[in-house]
Amino acid sequence: MGWYKAVNKAVKGKFYTKRDANTKTSTSTPTSQAAASDTTSPSSPPAPPTPSAARFAVSSTDAAHYEMKDNTVIVVFGASGDLAKKKILPALFGLFRQGYLPTDVQIVGYARTKMEKAEFHSRAVSYIKNPDKDAAISAYDDGSAFKALNDHLLSIEAKYTSKERNRMFYFALPPNVFVPVAKNIKEHCYAETGVNRIIVEKPLGRDLGSARELINSLMQYWSEEETYRIDHYLGKEMVKNILVLRFANVAMGTMWDKNSISNVQITFKEPFGTEGRGGYFDSFGIIRDVLQNHLLQVLSVLTMERPVSFSAEDIRDEKYPPITQEDTLLGQYVGADGKPGYLEDDTVPQGSVCPTFAATTLWIHNPRWEGVPFILKAGKALNEGKVEVRIQFKDVTQGIFKDITRNELIIRIQPSEAIYMKMNTKTPGLQTSAMATEMDLTYNRRFADAKIPEAYEALILDALQGDHSNFVRNDELDVAWKIFTPILHWIDGSRPKPLSYAYGSRGPAELNAFVERYGYHRSPSAYEWPVTNLGAQ
Length: 537
Ligand SMILES: NC(=O)C1=CN([C@@H]2O[C@H](COP(=O)(O)OP(=O)(O)OC[C@H]3O[C@@H](n4cnc5c(N)ncnc54)[C@H](OP(=O)(O)O)[C@@H]3O)[C@@H](O)[C@H]2O)C=CC1
Ligand SMILES: O=C1O[C@H](COP(=O)(O)O)[C@@H](O)[C@H](O)[C@H]1O
Description:
Layout: H1 4-12, E1 26-28, E2 72-77, H2 82-97, E3 106-110, H3 117-125, H4 143-157, E4 166-171, H5 178-188, E5 196-200, H6 208-219, E6 227-229, H7 237-247, H8 250-255, E7 261-269, H9 278-303, H10 312-316, E8 328-334, E9 357-362, E10 374-379, E11 386-393, E12 408-414, E13 418-426, E14 434-442, H11 443-446, H12 455-464, H13 474-494, E15 499-502, H14 511-517
Parallel strand pairs: 1-3, 2-3, 2-4, 4-5, 5-6, 7-10, 8-15
Antiparallel strand pairs: 7-11, 8-9, 9-10, 11-12, 12-13, 13-14
Helix pairs in contact: 2-12, 4-5, 6-13, 9-13
The chain binds NADPH dihydro-nicotinamide-adenine-dinucleotide phosphate (NDP) and the ligand O=C1O[C@H](COP(=O)(O)O)[C@@H](O)[C@H](O)[C@H]1O.
The ligand O=C1O[C@H](COP(=O)(O)O)[C@@H](O)[C@H](O)[C@H]1O binds next to helix 9.
Protein backbone atom coordinates (compact mmCIF):
# COMPACT_ATOMS: atom_id res chain seq x y z
CA MET A 1 0.00 0.00 0.00
CA GLY A 2 0.90 3.57 -0.21
CA TRP A 3 3.90 3.84 -2.48
CA TYR A 4 2.15 5.50 -5.34
CA LYS A 5 1.69 8.71 -3.44
CA ALA A 6 4.60 11.02 -3.83
CA VAL A 7 6.12 8.94 -6.56
CA ASN A 8 3.14 9.71 -8.67
CA LYS A 9 4.02 13.31 -8.16
CA ALA A 10 7.63 12.77 -9.11
CA VAL A 11 6.64 10.88 -12.23
CA LYS A 12 4.34 13.64 -13.31
CA GLY A 13 7.08 16.18 -12.71
CA LYS A 14 4.48 18.67 -11.69
CA PHE A 15 5.08 22.14 -10.40
CA TYR A 16 2.42 24.29 -8.92
CA THR A 17 1.42 27.39 -10.75
CA LYS A 18 0.95 30.45 -8.65
CA ARG A 19 -2.05 32.58 -9.36
CA ASP A 20 -2.16 36.30 -9.62
CA ALA A 21 -1.58 37.67 -6.15
CA ASN A 22 -4.09 40.42 -6.71
CA THR A 23 -6.84 37.89 -7.16
CA LYS A 24 -10.03 38.78 -5.39
CA THR A 25 -11.36 36.27 -2.94
CA SER A 26 -14.25 36.40 -0.60
CA THR A 27 -16.08 34.24 1.85
CA SER A 28 -19.81 34.33 2.09
CA THR A 29 -22.93 32.93 3.64
CA PRO A 30 -25.66 31.00 1.89
CA THR A 31 -28.31 32.87 3.79
CA SER A 32 -27.08 36.41 3.50
CA GLN A 33 -25.49 38.26 0.68
CA ALA A 34 -21.85 37.50 0.16
CA ALA A 35 -19.65 39.41 2.54
CA ALA A 36 -17.31 39.93 -0.32
CA SER A 37 -14.53 42.39 -0.02
CA ASP A 38 -11.35 42.94 -1.88
CA THR A 39 -8.60 41.03 -0.21
CA THR A 40 -5.50 41.87 -2.03
CA SER A 41 -2.59 39.98 -0.62
CA PRO A 42 -1.83 41.30 2.90
CA SER A 43 1.81 41.78 2.12
CA SER A 44 3.95 41.07 -0.89
CA PRO A 45 3.70 37.35 -1.50
CA PRO A 46 6.96 35.42 -1.57
CA ALA A 47 8.46 34.34 -4.86
CA PRO A 48 6.67 31.28 -6.21
CA PRO A 49 8.32 27.88 -6.57
CA THR A 50 7.77 27.82 -10.34
CA PRO A 51 10.86 26.85 -12.29
CA SER A 52 9.86 28.42 -15.58
CA ALA A 53 11.35 25.83 -17.91
CA ALA A 54 9.69 22.96 -16.11
CA ARG A 55 6.35 24.63 -15.48
CA PHE A 56 3.54 22.20 -15.96
CA ALA A 57 -0.07 23.10 -15.67
CA VAL A 58 -2.81 20.48 -15.65
CA SER A 59 -4.94 21.34 -18.62
CA SER A 60 -6.71 18.05 -19.18
CA THR A 61 -10.43 18.23 -19.67
CA ASP A 62 -10.59 14.84 -17.97
CA ALA A 63 -12.41 15.64 -14.73
CA ALA A 64 -10.18 13.39 -12.66
CA HIS A 65 -7.13 15.53 -13.31
CA TYR A 66 -8.84 18.79 -14.03
CA GLU A 67 -7.30 21.76 -12.32
CA MET A 68 -9.95 23.88 -10.69
CA LYS A 69 -9.01 27.44 -11.48
CA ASP A 70 -11.56 29.95 -12.62
CA ASN A 71 -15.22 29.63 -11.71
CA THR A 72 -14.56 27.70 -8.52
CA VAL A 73 -16.44 27.73 -5.24
CA ILE A 74 -15.13 25.94 -2.11
CA VAL A 75 -17.80 25.01 0.46
CA VAL A 76 -16.59 24.17 3.97
CA PHE A 77 -19.15 22.04 5.85
CA GLY A 78 -18.76 22.17 9.61
CA ALA A 79 -17.57 25.74 9.29
CA SER A 80 -18.36 26.51 12.94
CA GLY A 81 -16.17 23.66 14.20
CA ASP A 82 -12.68 23.28 15.55
CA LEU A 83 -11.08 21.73 12.52
CA ALA A 84 -12.36 24.44 10.23
CA LYS A 85 -11.25 27.13 12.65
CA LYS A 86 -7.80 25.79 13.39
CA LYS A 87 -6.77 24.18 10.14
CA ILE A 88 -9.01 24.53 7.09
CA LEU A 89 -9.77 28.25 7.07
CA PRO A 90 -6.18 29.22 7.92
CA ALA A 91 -4.92 26.89 5.18
CA LEU A 92 -7.26 28.43 2.62
CA PHE A 93 -6.17 31.86 3.69
CA GLY A 94 -2.50 30.82 3.54
CA LEU A 95 -2.96 29.58 -0.02
CA PHE A 96 -4.67 32.81 -0.96
CA ARG A 97 -1.94 34.93 0.54
CA GLN A 98 0.68 33.09 -1.41
CA GLY A 99 -1.29 33.52 -4.60
CA TYR A 100 -2.19 29.86 -5.11
CA LEU A 101 -5.96 29.98 -4.99
CA PRO A 102 -8.03 29.99 -8.15
CA THR A 103 -8.93 33.32 -9.62
CA ASP A 104 -12.08 34.75 -8.10
CA VAL A 105 -12.47 31.81 -5.75
CA GLN A 106 -15.42 32.03 -3.40
CA ILE A 107 -15.36 30.27 -0.03
CA VAL A 108 -18.70 29.45 1.56
CA GLY A 109 -19.07 28.31 5.16
CA TYR A 110 -21.98 25.99 6.07
CA ALA A 111 -22.91 24.92 9.60
CA ARG A 112 -25.85 23.98 11.79
CA THR A 113 -24.91 26.35 14.54
CA LYS A 114 -26.63 29.67 14.18
CA MET A 115 -24.11 32.39 14.64
CA GLU A 116 -23.89 36.09 13.99
CA LYS A 117 -21.57 36.95 11.19
CA ALA A 118 -19.38 38.96 13.54
CA GLU A 119 -18.95 36.01 15.87
CA PHE A 120 -18.13 33.71 13.03
CA HIS A 121 -15.71 36.23 11.69
CA SER A 122 -13.83 36.40 14.95
CA ARG A 123 -13.69 32.58 15.19
CA ALA A 124 -12.52 32.27 11.63
CA VAL A 125 -9.70 34.77 11.96
CA SER A 126 -8.55 33.66 15.40
CA TYR A 127 -6.16 31.08 13.97
CA ILE A 128 -5.20 33.00 10.87
CA LYS A 129 -1.73 34.36 11.40
CA ASN A 130 -2.24 37.32 9.14
CA PRO A 131 -5.97 38.02 9.23
CA ASP A 132 -7.64 40.25 6.73
CA LYS A 133 -11.09 41.67 6.62
CA ASP A 134 -13.34 38.95 5.19
CA ALA A 135 -15.04 35.85 6.59
CA ALA A 136 -18.05 33.55 6.09
CA ILE A 137 -21.04 31.95 7.84
CA SER A 138 -23.97 29.81 7.35
CA ALA A 139 -28.98 20.94 9.15
CA TYR A 140 -27.12 18.37 7.45
CA ASP A 141 -30.04 16.16 6.64
CA ASP A 142 -32.33 18.92 5.54
CA GLY A 143 -32.67 18.88 1.77
CA SER A 144 -34.23 22.35 1.72
CA ALA A 145 -31.15 23.82 3.42
CA PHE A 146 -29.03 22.33 0.66
CA LYS A 147 -31.35 23.81 -1.95
CA ALA A 148 -30.78 27.15 -0.26
CA LEU A 149 -27.06 26.50 -0.37
CA ASN A 150 -27.33 25.71 -4.07
CA ASP A 151 -29.25 28.93 -4.68
CA HIS A 152 -26.51 30.77 -2.93
CA LEU A 153 -23.85 29.09 -5.02
CA LEU A 154 -25.79 29.88 -8.17
CA SER A 155 -25.96 33.53 -7.16
CA ILE A 156 -22.19 33.55 -6.77
CA GLU A 157 -21.72 31.80 -10.08
CA ALA A 158 -24.15 34.08 -11.94
CA LYS A 159 -21.31 36.42 -12.71
CA TYR A 160 -19.20 33.79 -14.44
CA THR A 161 -18.79 34.52 -18.10
CA SER A 162 -18.67 30.86 -19.13
CA LYS A 163 -20.89 27.92 -18.16
CA GLU A 164 -18.09 26.29 -16.21
CA ARG A 165 -18.95 25.87 -12.52
CA ASN A 166 -16.44 24.06 -10.30
CA ARG A 167 -17.36 23.15 -6.77
CA MET A 168 -15.18 21.74 -4.02
CA PHE A 169 -16.93 20.56 -0.82
CA TYR A 170 -14.84 20.15 2.34
CA PHE A 171 -16.29 17.84 5.06
CA ALA A 172 -14.91 19.29 8.31
CA LEU A 173 -17.68 17.30 10.00
CA PRO A 174 -18.34 14.49 12.44
CA PRO A 175 -18.58 11.20 10.54
CA ASN A 176 -22.22 10.55 11.46
CA VAL A 177 -23.30 13.21 8.99
CA PHE A 178 -20.91 12.30 6.16
CA VAL A 179 -23.50 10.22 4.30
CA PRO A 180 -26.47 12.63 4.53
CA VAL A 181 -24.24 15.50 3.53
CA ALA A 182 -22.76 13.56 0.62
CA LYS A 183 -26.26 12.64 -0.52
CA ASN A 184 -27.66 16.14 -0.16
CA ILE A 185 -24.82 17.78 -1.99
CA LYS A 186 -25.12 15.29 -4.83
CA GLU A 187 -28.86 15.78 -5.06
CA HIS A 188 -29.04 19.52 -4.60
CA CYS A 189 -25.65 21.13 -5.08
CA TYR A 190 -23.93 19.18 -7.82
CA ALA A 191 -22.72 21.45 -10.58
CA GLU A 192 -23.78 19.95 -13.90
CA THR A 193 -21.38 21.94 -16.00
CA GLY A 194 -18.11 21.69 -14.16
CA VAL A 195 -16.02 19.57 -11.84
CA ASN A 196 -17.25 18.58 -8.37
CA ARG A 197 -15.03 17.21 -5.61
CA ILE A 198 -15.43 16.29 -1.94
CA ILE A 199 -12.67 16.28 0.65
CA VAL A 200 -13.43 13.93 3.54
CA GLU A 201 -11.70 13.91 6.92
CA LYS A 202 -11.04 11.00 9.25
CA PRO A 203 -12.33 9.06 11.11
CA LEU A 204 -13.46 6.90 8.23
CA GLY A 205 -14.96 4.07 10.25
CA ARG A 206 -14.21 2.40 13.59
CA ASP A 207 -13.08 -0.92 12.15
CA LEU A 208 -12.95 -2.78 8.87
CA GLY A 209 -16.70 -3.46 8.70
CA SER A 210 -17.85 0.07 9.52
CA ALA A 211 -15.22 1.63 7.25
CA ARG A 212 -16.36 -0.49 4.30
CA GLU A 213 -19.97 0.44 5.03
CA LEU A 214 -19.14 4.13 5.14
CA ILE A 215 -17.00 4.06 2.02
CA ASN A 216 -19.65 2.15 0.09
CA SER A 217 -22.35 4.55 1.24
CA LEU A 218 -20.31 7.54 0.15
CA MET A 219 -19.52 5.88 -3.16
CA GLN A 220 -23.21 5.64 -3.98
CA TYR A 221 -23.03 9.35 -4.53
CA TRP A 222 -19.40 10.24 -5.20
CA SER A 223 -16.95 8.37 -7.39
CA GLU A 224 -13.41 7.51 -6.29
CA GLU A 225 -12.02 10.17 -8.57
CA GLU A 226 -14.28 12.83 -7.09
CA THR A 227 -13.37 11.84 -3.53
CA TYR A 228 -10.30 13.05 -1.68
CA ARG A 229 -9.79 11.24 1.66
CA ILE A 230 -7.44 13.39 3.64
CA ASP A 231 -4.74 12.27 6.04
CA HIS A 232 -2.98 15.48 6.80
CA TYR A 233 0.27 13.69 7.65
CA LEU A 234 0.67 13.04 3.94
CA GLY A 235 0.82 16.78 3.43
CA LYS A 236 3.64 17.34 5.93
CA GLU A 237 6.80 18.45 4.28
CA MET A 238 9.05 15.88 5.93
CA VAL A 239 6.69 13.03 5.12
CA LYS A 240 6.70 14.12 1.51
CA ASN A 241 10.46 14.30 1.71
CA ILE A 242 10.86 10.64 2.60
CA LEU A 243 10.48 9.45 -0.96
CA VAL A 244 12.95 11.99 -2.24
CA LEU A 245 15.38 10.95 0.45
CA ARG A 246 14.96 7.30 -0.51
CA PHE A 247 14.69 7.32 -4.24
CA ALA A 248 16.77 10.34 -5.18
CA ASN A 249 19.79 9.19 -3.18
CA VAL A 250 21.51 6.05 -4.34
CA ALA A 251 23.40 5.88 -1.06
CA MET A 252 20.18 5.73 0.92
CA GLY A 253 18.63 3.18 -1.39
CA THR A 254 21.36 0.67 -0.80
CA MET A 255 20.99 0.68 2.97
CA TRP A 256 17.19 0.71 3.02
CA ASP A 257 16.51 -2.93 3.92
CA LYS A 258 16.82 -5.76 6.43
CA ASN A 259 20.52 -6.19 5.68
CA SER A 260 21.43 -2.83 7.19
CA ILE A 261 18.47 -1.87 9.39
CA SER A 262 17.87 -3.38 12.81
CA ASN A 263 14.64 -1.66 13.80
CA VAL A 264 12.53 1.39 13.05
CA GLN A 265 10.50 3.55 15.42
CA ILE A 266 7.84 5.99 14.28
CA THR A 267 6.99 8.18 17.22
CA PHE A 268 4.22 10.70 17.86
CA LYS A 269 4.34 12.56 21.16
CA GLU A 270 2.08 15.34 22.39
CA PRO A 271 2.85 17.22 25.59
CA PHE A 272 -0.82 17.80 26.45
CA GLY A 273 -3.72 15.56 27.44
CA THR A 274 -7.26 15.48 26.12
CA GLU A 275 -8.14 18.60 28.08
CA GLY A 276 -11.87 18.88 27.41
CA ARG A 277 -11.82 16.83 24.21
CA GLY A 278 -12.12 13.58 26.14
CA GLY A 279 -15.63 12.88 24.93
CA TYR A 280 -14.53 12.51 21.34
CA PHE A 281 -11.22 10.94 22.18
CA ASP A 282 -12.59 8.33 24.56
CA SER A 283 -14.76 6.78 21.89
CA PHE A 284 -11.75 6.35 19.63
CA GLY A 285 -8.54 6.01 21.64
CA ILE A 286 -5.01 6.69 20.51
CA ILE A 287 -4.82 3.79 18.06
CA ARG A 288 -7.74 5.03 15.96
CA ASP A 289 -6.76 8.64 16.50
CA VAL A 290 -3.14 8.48 15.38
CA LEU A 291 -1.65 5.03 14.72
CA GLN A 292 -4.14 3.53 12.26
CA ASN A 293 -3.93 6.56 10.04
CA HIS A 294 -1.11 9.05 10.46
CA LEU A 295 1.68 6.73 11.60
CA LEU A 296 0.65 3.95 9.26
CA GLN A 297 0.79 6.36 6.34
CA VAL A 298 4.30 7.39 7.36
CA LEU A 299 5.21 3.71 7.55
CA SER A 300 3.86 3.06 4.08
CA VAL A 301 5.89 5.86 2.54
CA LEU A 302 8.95 4.64 4.41
CA THR A 303 8.68 1.02 3.28
CA MET A 304 6.97 1.02 -0.10
CA GLU A 305 8.70 -0.32 -3.16
CA ARG A 306 9.58 1.81 -6.08
CA PRO A 307 6.41 1.93 -8.16
CA VAL A 308 5.87 -0.61 -10.86
CA SER A 309 2.47 0.69 -11.74
CA PHE A 310 -0.27 2.56 -9.98
CA SER A 311 -2.68 -0.36 -9.90
CA ALA A 312 -4.37 -1.53 -6.74
CA GLU A 313 -2.79 -4.96 -7.16
CA ASP A 314 0.68 -3.52 -6.77
CA ILE A 315 -0.35 -1.89 -3.56
CA ARG A 316 -1.67 -5.15 -2.24
CA ASP A 317 1.64 -6.83 -3.04
CA GLU A 318 2.89 -5.73 0.35
CA LYS A 319 2.02 -8.17 3.12
CA TYR A 320 1.04 -6.56 6.39
CA PRO A 321 -0.25 -9.08 8.94
CA PRO A 322 -2.62 -7.83 11.66
CA ILE A 323 -1.07 -6.57 14.90
CA THR A 324 -1.03 -9.02 17.78
CA GLN A 325 -1.60 -8.53 21.52
CA GLU A 326 1.98 -9.63 22.24
CA ASP A 327 3.27 -6.81 20.04
CA THR A 328 1.17 -4.15 21.77
CA LEU A 329 1.65 -2.03 24.86
CA LEU A 330 -1.13 0.26 26.08
CA GLY A 331 -0.99 3.14 28.53
CA GLN A 332 -3.17 5.79 30.13
CA TYR A 333 -1.85 8.93 31.82
CA VAL A 334 -2.42 9.77 35.45
CA GLY A 335 -2.16 13.17 37.07
CA ALA A 336 1.30 14.48 37.99
CA ASP A 337 2.81 17.84 38.94
CA GLY A 338 -0.55 19.56 39.12
CA LYS A 339 -1.64 18.25 35.72
CA PRO A 340 -4.89 16.24 35.68
CA GLY A 341 -4.96 12.57 34.81
CA TYR A 342 -7.07 11.32 31.92
CA LEU A 343 -9.80 10.08 34.26
CA GLU A 344 -9.95 13.49 35.92
CA ASP A 345 -11.06 15.10 32.66
CA ASP A 346 -14.79 15.80 33.15
CA THR A 347 -15.50 14.86 29.54
CA VAL A 348 -14.08 11.34 30.05
CA PRO A 349 -16.45 8.55 31.20
CA GLN A 350 -15.72 7.26 34.71
CA GLY A 351 -13.44 4.28 34.86
CA SER A 352 -12.56 4.49 31.18
CA VAL A 353 -9.83 2.12 30.03
CA CYS A 354 -9.27 4.02 26.81
CA PRO A 355 -5.57 4.00 25.88
CA THR A 356 -3.97 7.42 25.59
CA PHE A 357 -0.65 5.78 24.75
CA ALA A 358 0.06 2.82 22.49
CA ALA A 359 3.13 1.14 21.11
CA THR A 360 2.56 -1.55 18.50
CA THR A 361 5.04 -3.45 16.42
CA LEU A 362 4.32 -4.24 12.79
CA TRP A 363 6.08 -6.71 10.53
CA ILE A 364 6.18 -6.63 6.76
CA HIS A 365 6.51 -9.93 4.99
CA ASN A 366 8.39 -9.18 1.85
CA PRO A 367 12.01 -9.79 0.80
CA ARG A 368 13.12 -6.28 1.73
CA TRP A 369 11.69 -6.09 5.22
CA GLU A 370 11.37 -9.65 6.52
CA GLY A 371 12.36 -9.66 10.20
CA VAL A 372 12.59 -5.87 10.69
CA PRO A 373 10.32 -4.61 13.48
CA PHE A 374 8.49 -1.34 12.86
CA ILE A 375 7.49 0.11 16.21
CA LEU A 376 4.69 2.70 16.05
CA LYS A 377 4.34 4.70 19.29
CA ALA A 378 1.94 7.50 20.04
CA GLY A 379 0.84 9.18 23.20
CA LYS A 380 -0.84 12.16 24.77
CA ALA A 381 0.40 14.02 27.86
CA LEU A 382 4.04 13.06 27.34
CA ASN A 383 7.30 14.84 28.11
CA GLU A 384 7.56 16.62 24.75
CA GLY A 385 5.86 17.33 21.45
CA LYS A 386 7.63 15.45 18.70
CA VAL A 387 6.97 13.35 15.63
CA GLU A 388 9.91 11.47 14.22
CA VAL A 389 11.12 8.41 12.38
CA ARG A 390 14.16 6.75 13.93
CA ILE A 391 15.88 4.16 11.79
CA GLN A 392 18.44 2.25 13.77
CA PHE A 393 21.09 0.36 11.84
CA LYS A 394 22.77 -2.88 12.82
CA ASP A 395 25.97 -3.20 14.83
CA VAL A 396 29.37 -3.26 13.28
CA THR A 397 29.99 -6.98 13.63
CA GLN A 398 33.75 -7.25 13.31
CA GLY A 399 37.02 -5.53 14.11
CA ILE A 400 37.96 -2.88 16.62
CA PHE A 401 34.78 -0.86 16.21
CA LYS A 402 32.31 -3.62 16.91
CA ASP A 403 31.15 -2.30 20.28
CA ILE A 404 30.48 1.29 19.38
CA THR A 405 27.29 3.31 18.96
CA ARG A 406 24.94 2.24 16.21
CA ASN A 407 24.16 4.51 13.30
CA GLU A 408 20.72 6.05 13.41
CA LEU A 409 18.94 8.07 10.79
CA ILE A 410 16.36 10.38 12.29
CA ILE A 411 13.74 12.17 10.22
CA ARG A 412 12.18 14.77 12.48
CA ILE A 413 8.76 15.54 11.08
CA GLN A 414 7.99 18.17 13.71
CA PRO A 415 8.81 20.44 15.33
CA SER A 416 11.88 21.93 13.70
CA GLU A 417 12.14 19.72 10.64
CA ALA A 418 15.48 17.93 10.43
CA ILE A 419 17.23 14.89 9.07
CA TYR A 420 20.24 13.75 11.03
CA MET A 421 22.40 10.72 10.94
CA LYS A 422 24.16 9.60 14.07
CA MET A 423 27.62 8.64 12.94
CA ASN A 424 30.88 7.54 14.45
CA THR A 425 33.88 9.59 13.65
CA LYS A 426 37.49 9.76 14.75
CA THR A 427 37.84 11.83 17.87
CA PRO A 428 39.70 14.89 16.70
CA GLY A 429 43.27 14.89 17.98
CA LEU A 430 46.31 12.71 18.11
CA GLN A 431 44.69 9.65 19.64
CA THR A 432 42.81 7.15 17.44
CA SER A 433 39.43 6.50 18.91
CA ALA A 434 35.89 6.75 17.64
CA MET A 435 33.18 8.98 19.00
CA ALA A 436 29.50 9.44 18.23
CA THR A 437 28.49 12.57 16.39
CA GLU A 438 26.01 13.53 13.70
CA MET A 439 25.60 14.65 10.12
CA ASP A 440 22.95 17.22 10.45
CA LEU A 441 20.45 18.78 8.08
CA THR A 442 18.40 21.09 10.22
CA TYR A 443 15.95 22.84 7.98
CA ASN A 444 15.75 26.23 9.58
CA ARG A 445 19.50 26.53 9.38
CA ARG A 446 20.02 25.14 5.91
CA PHE A 447 16.89 26.63 4.35
CA ALA A 448 16.61 29.72 6.50
CA ASP A 449 14.35 31.63 4.11
CA ALA A 450 12.15 28.78 2.98
CA LYS A 451 8.52 28.70 3.97
CA ILE A 452 7.50 25.16 4.90
CA PRO A 453 3.88 24.84 3.77
CA GLU A 454 1.24 23.79 6.23
CA ALA A 455 0.03 20.25 5.52
CA TYR A 456 -3.52 21.41 4.82
CA GLU A 457 -2.31 24.05 2.42
CA ALA A 458 -0.41 21.48 0.42
CA LEU A 459 -3.30 19.02 0.35
CA ILE A 460 -6.07 21.48 -0.50
CA LEU A 461 -3.96 22.70 -3.36
CA ASP A 462 -3.45 19.12 -4.55
CA ALA A 463 -7.21 18.56 -4.45
CA LEU A 464 -7.87 21.69 -6.44
CA GLN A 465 -5.33 20.51 -8.99
CA GLY A 466 -6.85 17.07 -9.29
CA ASP A 467 -3.86 15.31 -7.80
CA HIS A 468 -4.84 12.26 -5.74
CA SER A 469 -1.32 11.09 -4.98
CA ASN A 470 -1.23 12.33 -1.40
CA PHE A 471 -4.74 11.18 -0.52
CA VAL A 472 -5.85 7.86 0.90
CA ARG A 473 -7.29 5.45 -1.58
CA ASN A 474 -10.25 3.20 -0.90
CA ASP A 475 -8.20 -0.04 -1.04
CA GLU A 476 -5.45 1.46 1.08
CA LEU A 477 -7.90 2.32 3.81
CA ASP A 478 -9.13 -1.25 3.69
CA VAL A 479 -5.60 -2.57 4.31
CA ALA A 480 -5.09 -0.09 7.16
CA TRP A 481 -8.24 -1.31 8.90
CA LYS A 482 -7.35 -4.97 8.34
CA ILE A 483 -4.10 -4.45 10.20
CA PHE A 484 -5.68 -2.78 13.21
CA THR A 485 -9.16 -4.27 13.46
CA PRO A 486 -8.27 -7.46 15.42
CA ILE A 487 -6.38 -5.53 18.12
CA LEU A 488 -9.10 -2.87 18.31
CA HIS A 489 -11.80 -5.53 18.70
CA TRP A 490 -9.76 -7.12 21.48
CA ILE A 491 -9.41 -3.75 23.24
CA ASP A 492 -13.10 -2.90 22.78
CA GLY A 493 -14.24 -6.35 23.85
CA SER A 494 -11.84 -7.38 26.63
CA ARG A 495 -11.18 -3.86 27.94
CA PRO A 496 -7.61 -4.60 29.09
CA LYS A 497 -6.43 -2.17 31.77
CA PRO A 498 -3.77 0.10 30.31
CA LEU A 499 -0.46 0.65 32.13
CA SER A 500 -0.29 3.94 33.98
CA TYR A 501 2.16 6.67 33.15
CA ALA A 502 2.60 10.08 34.68
CA TYR A 503 1.51 13.20 32.82
CA GLY A 504 4.72 14.66 31.40
CA SER A 505 6.68 11.41 31.34
CA ARG A 506 7.96 9.44 28.33
CA GLY A 507 5.11 6.92 28.67
CA PRO A 508 4.71 3.72 30.71
CA ALA A 509 7.89 2.59 32.47
CA GLU A 510 7.59 -0.70 30.54
CA LEU A 511 8.22 1.11 27.27
CA ASN A 512 12.01 0.83 27.36
CA ALA A 513 11.90 -2.95 27.81
CA PHE A 514 9.27 -3.13 25.05
CA VAL A 515 11.43 -1.40 22.45
CA GLU A 516 14.52 -3.32 23.59
CA ARG A 517 12.66 -6.55 22.86
CA TYR A 518 12.71 -5.56 19.22
CA GLY A 519 16.42 -4.88 19.21
CA TYR A 520 16.52 -1.14 19.89
CA HIS A 521 19.75 -0.07 21.60
CA ARG A 522 19.70 3.39 23.08
CA SER A 523 22.82 5.36 22.26
CA PRO A 524 25.22 5.48 25.18
CA SER A 525 24.98 8.73 27.13
CA ALA A 526 28.37 9.66 25.63
CA TYR A 527 26.46 11.12 22.71
CA GLU A 528 25.70 14.71 23.42
CA TRP A 529 24.09 17.24 21.20
CA PRO A 530 25.86 20.57 21.75
CA VAL A 531 23.51 23.00 23.43
CA THR A 532 24.74 25.81 21.20
CA ASN A 533 23.17 24.02 18.24
CA LEU A 534 19.77 24.29 19.80
CA GLY A 535 19.67 27.99 19.04
CA ALA A 536 18.58 27.22 15.53
CA GLN A 537 15.63 25.02 16.54
N1 LIG B 1 19.30 18.63 13.81
C1 LIG B 1 18.92 18.55 15.04
O1 LIG B 1 18.02 19.27 15.46
C2 LIG B 1 19.55 17.60 15.93
C3 LIG B 1 19.10 17.54 17.22
N2 LIG B 1 19.64 16.67 18.06
C4 LIG B 1 19.11 16.67 19.40
O2 LIG B 1 19.94 15.98 20.25
C5 LIG B 1 19.22 15.32 21.28
C6 LIG B 1 19.60 13.85 21.30
O3 LIG B 1 19.23 13.30 20.06
P1 LIG B 1 18.64 11.87 19.91
O4 LIG B 1 19.60 10.89 20.48
O5 LIG B 1 18.25 11.70 18.52
O6 LIG B 1 17.29 11.93 20.75
P2 LIG B 1 16.92 11.48 22.22
O7 LIG B 1 18.12 11.21 23.03
O8 LIG B 1 15.98 12.51 22.69
O9 LIG B 1 16.11 10.18 21.97
C7 LIG B 1 16.72 9.03 21.45
C8 LIG B 1 15.86 7.84 21.62
O10 LIG B 1 16.05 7.38 22.95
C9 LIG B 1 14.82 7.25 23.63
N3 LIG B 1 15.02 7.72 25.00
C10 LIG B 1 15.02 8.98 25.44
N4 LIG B 1 15.25 9.01 26.76
C11 LIG B 1 15.40 7.71 27.15
C12 LIG B 1 15.65 7.06 28.39
N5 LIG B 1 15.81 7.77 29.50
N6 LIG B 1 15.75 5.71 28.39
C13 LIG B 1 15.60 5.00 27.25
N7 LIG B 1 15.35 5.55 26.08
C14 LIG B 1 15.25 6.88 26.03
C15 LIG B 1 13.86 8.14 22.87
O11 LIG B 1 12.56 7.60 23.03
P3 LIG B 1 11.24 8.48 23.05
O12 LIG B 1 11.29 9.36 21.86
O13 LIG B 1 10.16 7.47 23.01
O14 LIG B 1 11.21 9.24 24.32
C16 LIG B 1 14.38 8.05 21.45
O15 LIG B 1 13.85 6.91 20.80
C17 LIG B 1 17.75 15.54 20.99
O16 LIG B 1 17.33 16.61 21.78
C18 LIG B 1 17.75 15.93 19.51
O17 LIG B 1 16.68 16.76 19.21
C19 LIG B 1 20.62 15.79 17.69
C20 LIG B 1 21.14 15.83 16.43
C21 LIG B 1 20.64 16.75 15.44
O1 LIG C 1 -5.58 13.86 13.61
C1 LIG C 1 -5.07 14.21 14.67
O2 LIG C 1 -3.87 14.83 14.65
C2 LIG C 1 -3.52 15.72 15.69
C3 LIG C 1 -2.03 16.02 15.53
O3 LIG C 1 -1.81 16.70 14.31
P1 LIG C 1 -0.49 17.56 14.17
O4 LIG C 1 -0.53 18.02 12.76
O5 LIG C 1 -0.59 18.65 15.17
O6 LIG C 1 0.65 16.65 14.45
C4 LIG C 1 -3.84 15.13 17.05
O7 LIG C 1 -3.64 16.11 18.06
C5 LIG C 1 -5.31 14.71 17.09
O8 LIG C 1 -5.60 14.06 18.35
C6 LIG C 1 -5.62 13.76 15.96
O9 LIG C 1 -7.02 13.56 15.88
